[in-house]
User: Which sequence fits this backbone?
């Protein structure tokens, strides 16, 4: 789950990261009220999950509450990278002498958190990484964790002033606590700003939480933004199924993540486009099948392209094919499908499954190759 900046700030605040006060606002009136209570110059920032808000006109300074009203109104009418701005953050503006970059991200290849720092923060860090990679300092945190001496050694060369280096090291250690204790896959501050008086402040908060850990963070639920989630994704989360919506037109329901990936690869191989990744898991449960069909069809009806054919690809091991067949039959009886269905199943209780399907006028193949080619053909027929 990606957090909005104002949510990331809430998280940062719990760990004592230094920020200037601010509050989220949904209307220009609210923005004016927040500006009045903060006093002085404020910064108004679009709360959308996209980088480069500054360049897109989504970050503006306002020196009076009335100006805050006007700027908030302008920003609230923007769409940044396809995302409508529904809220703005109104925060006390900082005077900036210098902008740094400071982030901790999960490096999956090295299986370690990676600290990334740069004295060239603020603007596109991707650009810095591309044209001047030597200006991006990279440090893999060892198993023992990030120790204070490591943070100091990292920051000292970046900050000529000793006091500032100490503040920055302290910030990095706190950010590391955010990252580990809150199960982040990314915790980023850009810019990490130095004020003319030498204070080091976090002026932005970008946080990605690892959804696999949501069972131990009950407080995350409040941060979930329903407008950023498809109805199918919501249903999948409620039913505990792994689901990723994609842009293609072939819905896939598969048991096991590996087989699901292989199925998507094969669909692509034969020139089709998968509409989703959906793993109904290893256990046998007809209810999961019903939920899976519902997830795919709900999302299909809400997106414009839609699903043109659905493929079941089941390799029965612990999963029993007859359970899946019963699930399919029950779902179809409850709500008939409007698109063609192709079923491939093989393995445990395959014969029983085939009989159940046959009794209900449905066929099934054992060949994955054949099933994939068939579903692509059916999807194309629907298009034509
Ligand atoms: P992003 O472009 O979406 O990452 O948005 P940021 O929050 O990083 O803001 C973009 C830029 O706006 C920063 O690099 C700063 O230059 C500027 N900015 C953000 N907050 C302040 C502030 O409090 N005071 C001033 N003077 N500039 C700010
Ligand atoms: Mn930023």
Assistant:
């Amino acid at each position: 789950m990606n957090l909005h900046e104002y949510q990331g700030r809430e998280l940062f605040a719990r760990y004592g990261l230094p920020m200037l006060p601010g509050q989220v606002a949904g209307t220009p009136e609210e923005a004016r009220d927040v500006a009045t209570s903060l006093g002085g110059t404020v910064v108004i920032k679009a709360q959308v999950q996209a980088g480069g808000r500054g360049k897109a006109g989504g970050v503006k300074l306002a020196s009076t509450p009335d100006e805050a009203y006007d700027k908030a109104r302008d920003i609230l009418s923007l769409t940044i990278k396809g995302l409508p701005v529904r809220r703005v953050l109104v925060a006390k503006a900082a005077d900036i002498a210098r902008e740094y970059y400071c982030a901790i991200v999960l490096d999956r290849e090295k299986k370690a958190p990676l600290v990334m720092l740069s004295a060239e923060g603020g603007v596109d860090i991707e650009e810095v990484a591309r044209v001047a990679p030597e200006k991006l300092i990279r440090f893999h945190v060892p198993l023992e964790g990030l120790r204070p001496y490591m943070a100091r050694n990292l920051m000292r060369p970046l900050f000529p002033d000793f006091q500032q280096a100490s503040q920055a090291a302290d910030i990095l250690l706190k950010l590391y606590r955010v990252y580990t204790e809150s199960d982040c896959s990314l915790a980023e501050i850009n810019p990490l700003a130095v004020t003319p008086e030498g204070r080091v402040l976090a002026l932005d908060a970008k946080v990605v939480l690892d959804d696999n850990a949501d069972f131990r963070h009950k407080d995350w639920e409040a941060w979930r933004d329903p407008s950023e989630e498809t109805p199918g994704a919501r249903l999948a989360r409620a039913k505990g199924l792994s689901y990723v919506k994609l842009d293609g037109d072939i819905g896939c329901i598969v048991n096991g993540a590996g087989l699901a990936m292989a199925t998507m690869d094969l669909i692509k191989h034969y020139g089709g486009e998968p509409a989703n990744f959906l793993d109904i898991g290893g256990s046998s449960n007809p209810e999961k099948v019903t939920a899976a069909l519902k997830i795919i069809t709900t999302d299909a009806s809400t997106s414009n392209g839609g699903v043109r054919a659905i493929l079941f690809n089941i390799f029965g091991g612990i999963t029993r094919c007859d359970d899946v067949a019963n699930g399919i039959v029950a779902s179809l009886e409850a709500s008939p499908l409007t698109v063609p269905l192709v079923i491939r199943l093989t393995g445990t209780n395959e014969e029983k499954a085939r009989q159940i399907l046959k009794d209900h006028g449905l066929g099934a193949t054992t060949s994955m190759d054949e099933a994939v080619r068939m579903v692509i053909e059916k999807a194309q027929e629907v298009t034509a």
Notes: The first helix runs from residue 5 to 14.
